[in-house]
Structures are given as C-alpha cells and as structure tokens.
Amino acid sequence: MAEDLCSFTKDTFNLKSPKKSPLVLRMLVLVFVMVCGVYICSVCVKQISARTKSEFLNVQVIERPCPVPNIEPWEIPYVHYPKPKTYSRAECACNPVRYFAILSMQRSGSGWFETLLNNHTNISSNGEVFSVKVRRSNASTIVETLDKIYNLDWFSSASKNECTAAVGLKWMLNQGLLQHHEEIAEYFRTRGVSAIFLFRRNQLRRMISVLANSYDRNAKLLNGTHKSHVHSPHEAEILARYKPIINATLLIRDMKQVEDTQTKALEYFKSTRHIIVYYEDILKNHTKLADIQEFLKVPQRDLRSRQVKIHRGPLANYVENWDDVQKALKGTQYESFLHGEYRK
Question: Which of 129, 212, 224, 307 has the smallest CB count inside 10 Å?
Fold first, then answer.
C-alpha cells in the first residue's frame, strides 16, 4: 500500500511540460511579418503617390507654357494672360487679353459706344465702375478695383469671362480720374492699359442731354422710372418732350470749361497708349468702329446697339429759350454748334 502511494505521488508531481509545436510558432511569426509588411508598404505607397502627384502638377505648369504670340515687339507690354481667382479660364488660358479704359464725360455717347463694344463676342467693358464713390475714395481703392477688373474677377452683365480678348471699363473724367491722374497714369503704364478717349464735338448737344437727363432723375417721366438710355422710339419721344432752359449768360464759359477739362485729360495721359474718337464721327461713319477694333487687336465684327437716340432732330426743338442761346453763340467759335449734325 505504501509503495502504491509513493508511486502515485511520484507520478503526480513528476509531470513533464508539453512541448510547444514549432509549426504554431512559425505561423505566428509569419503572420506578424505579413502585417508589418502590409503596413510598411501602405505608408510607402501613400508617400510615393503624393510625391508623384505633386511632381505631375509641377510638370504640367512647366511643360505647357503659353505659346509666344505673333506680335510686334512694341505690343508685348499690352498682351496679358490673367489668372482669375474666382474661376479657371480653362481652354482659353492661353488666349491673350488686352486691357483698356474708355475715358469720357457724361452724355458724350459713352453708354451707346460701350454697348457697341460689348456686342463683340470677345470684348468685355464693365460699365461706369467708378460712379460708386467708395471705389474712387483714394488711389489704393482705385488700384484695387482696377486689379479686379483686369484680372477678370469683376462680374457684370458684360463679362465674357473665359474667352475675353479685351477687358475694360467706362471712366468719366470727374470720377477720380483727374484727381489721381499721376497714380492712374503710372498704373496704366506698368500694367499695359490702353486708353480710348471718347468726346463729343458739339458741346451744345451734350449740354442739352445733361440738363434733360438731370431733370428726369427727379421727374421719372417713363412710368415713374428714370432711364439714362432707352431702347424704343416711343420712350425716346417721351423723354425728348422736356425742353430745358439754358443759362445763356454762362453758356460760353461752361463750354470752355469742358474744353479745358478734355485738354487736361489728354495732357495727363499723353504717355499712355491711346486713341481719340468722337461720338459724331462714329455716328456718321461706322467704319470708325473698325479702327477701335484694330486698336484693341480683336477680330473685326459688325457691331450693333439696341439703344435709341433721344434728341434726334434740330436743337431748336429741344431748348425752351432757343433765341437766347442763338444770340449768345452767334459770332463766336461755337456758332457752328447751333446747326450741328443730327441723325434722322
């Protein structure tokens, strides 16, 4: 009995620990190595992908420059490739763009002239941008506004966006242009902006238009709405019924002031590439528009406007005190204005 107990105790406490299977260990090591390998490969692939993408984008910019346009050397400063911040020019990114500004005076036909330009598929003239005073409060705000326009980031009904070949605005001489002429002339020079001076030969017709338009701002003859420009003969007839009274005593002085202002503008911007056109010349001879298109280096097009002229007949029909006006201008250098050309 004692021998059996001793035998039991020996067998009980003398157990050998089981041997671990070498196959299981190998499998564990293999799984661990595979997991590490997958992780390392994924990190490497991400880094290579990011670097390759970056290099690809850089290569695109470097390897696809815009071709050099076939132009005269003097034209180079006036050819631009703007990069708008608000959209992409896409396939038109390499289409050269010319910058221009229409410099004029109120009621000189600039509104009608601008609609003719905007009738061209490749021209965007953005209207009287600086009629808003805050935009012309100082030279800095003027430059900031011009940058936005010429970078094709200014949106208006005239915007052609991607495939614009000439972009500009209409700028009245009394809208900060002469006040900040030094800074603006320098901007035009460094940015390659061309100027289109648009004046009116017959200052008497312009004065009548200014007075009539000023009256309608308050009277609002067209069903309670003020319109500076109209698109129907009926509306033109209604506005033309008003006959302003002209101060004959100050008439010659006022005309000289207009001439002085125009002369001053031409002097201030004489170093700017420019062309001078007159409303009456365009009205009588539409081939003048071909000269403008050549100046802007855009394809020649037949340009049309929907605007209708308001004062179409002899000036005697549109001035209340016509006899006083005649007496004031007879025998002066302005006498020819009494019989100025008009479109029937």
Answer: 224
